[in-house]
Batch of 4 targets.
Target 1
Amino acid sequence: MLKGLLAAEIERIQETREEAQDARAEADHAKADQVRMARDVSVMFDELKALADKYAELHVDLARLQAELERERTELARARQPWWWWLLGLKR
């Protein structure tokens, strides 16, 4: 009788140990997933920052090109005026 109780207790302890090992393996796997996701988020953040920097750079270039285009349009409009307007001091 005592031997049977001892065997049952040993079996229960082994099952508990196996459950604990399974839980530890699952926790380790979850931690590895968290580390991987954190690394992925970090990479995505770096890519997003690079894109934001590139966007800002392109925005500055666009403003510069628009100002240059406006100057060229003004120069073209002046060049299209008849030469005698210039003599008379007329402006369009």
Target 2
Amino acid sequence: MSVFIKKRQGIKDNRSDFFFNIIVNCMLILALVIVLYPLYFIVIASISDPNAVNNGQVLLLPKSIGFSCYKIIFRDKDIWQGYRNTIFYTVFGTLLGLSISLPAAYSLSRSDLIGRGWIMKYFVLTMFFGGGLIPAYLVVKSLHLTNTPFVMIILGSVSVYNIIVAKTFFESTIPKELLEAASIDGCPNGKFFFRIVLPLSKPIVAVVTLTYAVSHWNSFFNGLIYLSNQNLYPLQLILREILISSQLVQGENVDPDSIVELMRVAGTIKYGVIIVSSLPVLIIYPFLQKYFTKGIMIGSIKG
């Protein structure tokens, strides 16, 4: 009798698990569609006929495939200038952020650092309180950084969140015995950090690198506030101007055919602009994904 009851209970449990898995899978599929469809729509809308897009005829498949909006986007010299500026800001801003964040995180992970708790509290305080936009602008202006490329590299190059994640990673991954063994062998702190800690910390280095690179690549607010020279504009700010004005080619180089073509594809330009600005990051991310996933999971276990 007891065996029969256990079997009946097992059947009920299996059925409940089966229906639960079906519900969970359906919810996951729905969430996947909700996330992926806007991305898919942007791609097919950017290569479809502008009239079909404006009339709502493009839903699942592109209509009258063409690349006229991309031709207009890449025809403008400001786009290429913005690409050069953004690559410059991203590379050097990321290097500056890494050179500050990783040593700071390692120092805070050391239990023998005097005043480590107070320093960490001051760091965390900056995440919740700031001086405001006007005081920040006055400080930047007093340092003669306005309208210079350095303002795009320096501002936003250090993130307390990244320091905390890297600090947690160092604490949970680098054993203290390794430091003790290196100290016995006469290895100084700097050499230990560069020769031992960094090679063992590729996941967190990838996480911090990707975070800083994406932040600098997508940055436009600092350029909007601190830059007035259009030759220094990052790509995102140029694309923002395009989306606002719906006008890409301006000045004496404009010909009537360009104006007509621009007006015809104005509805699809915004989709092409999104792809142009996001494609480099989407290309780089798969190569860092395995390090990114491992590093962010390990770095978020503690703290």
Target 3
Amino acid sequence: MVFMIPPRRSIAAAALLAISALLIAGCERVPLLAPSGSTISLTAAATALPSNGSTDIIAQVIESGGTPPHSGTLVTFTTSFGTVQPSQAETDVSGRVQVKFVAGTGSGTATITALSGGVSASGTNAVKIVCGAAAVGRVIVTANPTLVPALGGTTAITAFVIDINGNPLNSVPVSFATTAGSLANSLVNADQNGQAQTTLRTSQTATVTASVGATAPTTPTTPTSPTTPTAPATGSAPGQASGTVTVGVIAAPTLVITPPTTSPSAGLPATFSFVITAAATNGSAVRDLSVNWGDGSGVQSLGAVTGTAAVTHVFRIAGTYLVSGTVLDASGNSSTVSTSVTVIPVPRPTIIITPSPVPGKVNTQTTLQIQVTLPNGISVQDLSINFGDGQTADLGGATSASVPHVYTSTGTFTVTVTVLDTTGQTTIGTAAVSVGP
């Protein structure tokens, strides 16, 4: 038997079925939320992150009875900085939800909250994570080397950026400033090890400051000597820190040259005093003292002279010379000092010839008394006599002698004495000898 449903009733039944289906579907799409009286606690794996850093965020939902809510309870996350990925997630059977916080490229403090139904983790229960430069805790600055030569040099300046938890903080910009000299780069991003490096070139004592944060602290006054890296200085506001290091200058030794008190003579030794004084602060050992005598004889190296050295030199030709001394230390510092000296011609010896008797007699011995007087420092290389009658004699290096001679004819004879001294000069003395019958 077939029952027929009136058309109007069929339409009403279909509508009722459709409404029921919509209601059922709507109920399935409504998310599960934490019941009233529940609590949400938030924890983060890290409290400080570099730029673009990330960390896990865990929300734990517990009902008022101390048990976790139904699995699949929806928790929504918000942050004041960066992003939470995903921003919504469902609890597992233990009531836990794990998402990831990504800091992004900026700097700031992220306040992360969680919400499910009427229950939230916010205010004092929210999680705070400092990101980028805002996470800086300390900046330690070092220099290698800490001393540069007096003529100028370079040193590597390294800033170690550490976050509030004592970990290296990377990808943050570090600003460098110096009280003297120049920096290769004044703004450098910290690498993966939290280090930022630049190069300082200076010939003066310089204090270099490395700063992280919006406002750099005031650069301290440069001290007169190098210092070890300072204890890190924290800025005046959170997310600001700086440190300093002082690079000193290796002082060069001083040199004083004192020439002879009286003008030296050509061909005679002249004694000069060279006094070297090592630097009292930041000094380095003397490696060499070299002297240019200014007379074309070249440069004389005296080695590692310390204190006072007396050095003699012989100027062969009279004139005025510029004597220069250069002291070089182990650090490469050099100091050159000059002084002028006037060299006078060497005095000539005096020669006195005294014949006896006067007048002499032919075929009788005549004695010639010869006396040579020499300036200090000079001696006779050779002394020769020409008696004027064709006869000669050589007395070697004698400076005085009684020389007998017999003239075989009468007349007046010119006796010539020639002296060659140790300076190379030749001096001639003469005397007339009368010889009678």
Target 4
Amino acid sequence: MVVTIDGPAGSGKSTAARKLAARLQIPYLDTGAMYRAVAYECLRRHVPLSDEKAVQTLAAALPLELDCGPTHTRIRIDGRDVSEAIRTLAVSAATSCVARMSSVRTLLVAEQRRIGQGLGAFVAEGRDQGSVVFPHADVKFVLEASLSRRAERRFQEMTADGENVTLDSVRENLRARDAVDSRQWEPLLKNRAATVIDTTDLTIAEVIERMIDHISALGHAIPTTS
């Protein structure tokens, strides 16, 4: 079974994807981490984000390795684990630039499909998983939430990790990303190809329960919990 979860930053899709994958006992594929890794390496190597050809060249040669387990996706660059380093606000801002580059997207989408083929069954999370990368997925979700709630969540995550940010800066970063990112899952909403869940006032347990109920209603077997 292939499940895709798309939606804006802070909607809870990463947490939901990890927990859903664990519940279904299949790997979790965080495709957004790949764009973050490219952005992180551009910043580290001082590759100008205004130069798409340079970013494409870096992405094509970047030795990325993803370790997809049922509760995590660890990402390494040339053997270095950068799973935490790619989560800063600076990398988030740079990632929006990288994600707009069609040549880079073409490279990473092909790699995501290759990884997915190797995994077989998985939960993929990102912004174009159900619309572009895995259009024939068995189950598709789009998670949404208000901007203020998403900003609060992301602010709490980042400050808990020790990053010096303000709620206003996080909110503006999300607002800027929304202007670009939303185009990627809009096709799923227009043709009702995905089940939409508004997570603004839901706990993560409630989100997972709704997902499991929907997957079960489609006739897919749900592993029993011990």
